[in-house]
Design goal:
By secondary structure, the protein is of the alpha/beta class. The chain has a single domain, classed as NAD(P)-binding Rossmann-like Domain (Rossmann fold), CATH 3.40.50. Helices cover about 40% and strands about 25% of the residues. The protein is built from 7 helices and 11 strands. It has a 9-stranded mixed β-sheet with strand order 3-2-1-4-5-6-10-8-11, with helices on both faces. Strands 7-9 form a two-stranded parallel sheet. The longest helix is centred in the middle third of the chain and has 22 residues. The chain is globular. It starts with a strand and ends with a helix. Bound molecules: NADP nicotinamide-adenine-dinucleotide phosphate. NADP nicotinamide-adenine-dinucleotide phosphate binds next to helix 1, helix 4 and strand 7. NADP nicotinamide-adenine-dinucleotide phosphate (NAP) binds next to helix 1, helix 4 and strand 7. It comes from Thermomonospora umbrina. InterPro entries: NAD(P)-bd_dom, NAD(P)-bd_dom_sf.
Length: about 220
């Protein structure tokens, strides 16, 4: 399988790249900072510099040409403000999906977030509200496309070692944590399960082995 990961220097992205490259899948990682290239190469992936707030659809599509799947793992991150929630968490996902369509890549896994698109409670911090809105709009954009999309909504991410056990199901599964390593393991299993498509899935750590959790989705 050939997989393109957007936001390729992100924490989940690096774990995902290492898992895929470790079993000899081809992995291309889109990064915006050339200084991150060596970290990406260490996973076994091929780094390609594309700033997803500046690149054109064609510039991203040319990287996607011939790939089997695209994974959106980018995010503006905790230090960012309202504007970059829109340009990255929404806009970069839309750009990647446009490019996937142009390149004829049908499989698209979007890392979203639990609660995406829910209306903000009164008094919600404006940056958090913008993040939840951007993630919701990115999901809506993807659902309207003729792609084999999957929206994966992790709970709160941790850097703890993977457990190999999760709860993975249509929303809502309830709040909880999930390790980034387990998110990466679930994405690999989903990429191996083409029949699981056009679904929105909450993900937290739980009792079910990853392979069983994905198999149970049918
Ligand atoms: N934190 C949580 O608890 C939580 C919960 C649920 C879902 N999520 C979502 O899960 C996803 C992955 O999380 P993570 O912790 O692995 O993310 P992360 O480590 O913050 O990585 C995000 C990556 O996106 C890249 N990026 C930002 N702007 C970009 C641009 N213009 N062009 C290309 N790449 C760009 C960043 O590059 P730079 O290194 O150059 O900045 C970074 O490498 C994110 O979408 C996040 O919102 C997070």
């Amino acid at each position: 399988m050939n997989v393109v990961i957007a936001g390729g220097h992100g924490k989940i992205a690096l774990l995902l790249a290492a898992r895929l490259a470790g079993r000899r899948d081809g992995v291309t990682a889109l990064i915006r900072n050339p200084d991150h290239a060596d970290d990406v190469r260490e996973t076994g992936a091929r780094p390609v510099v594309r700033d997803l707030e500046r690149a054109s659809v064609d510039e991203v599509a040319e990287v996607l040409a011939g790939a089997d799947a695209a994974v959106f793992a980018a995010g503006a991150g905790p230090g960012s403000g309202v504007a970059r929630k829109d340009t990255v968490d929404r806009g970069a996902s839309v750009l990647l999906a446009d490019a996937a369509e142009r390149a004829g890549v049908g499989r698209f896994v979007q890392i979203s977030a639990m609660g995406a698109g829910l209306p903000p409670r009164p008094g919600t911090d404006e940056v958090w509200a913008a993040y939840v809105r951007a993630k919701g709009e990115a999901e809506d954009d993807l659902r309207a496309r003729d792609l084999d999309w999957l929206v994966l909504r992790p709970g709160r991410l941790t850097d703890d070692p993977g457990t190999g056990r999760v709860t993975l199901a249509e929303p809502e599964v309830g709040r909880g944590d999930v390790t980034r390593d387990d998110v990466a393991a679930v994405i690999v299993a989903l990429l191996d399960a083409p029949a699981v498509r056009r679904r929105t899935l909450d993900l937290v750590n739980g009792p079910v082995p990853v392979a069983e959790a994905v198999a149970a989705l049918g």
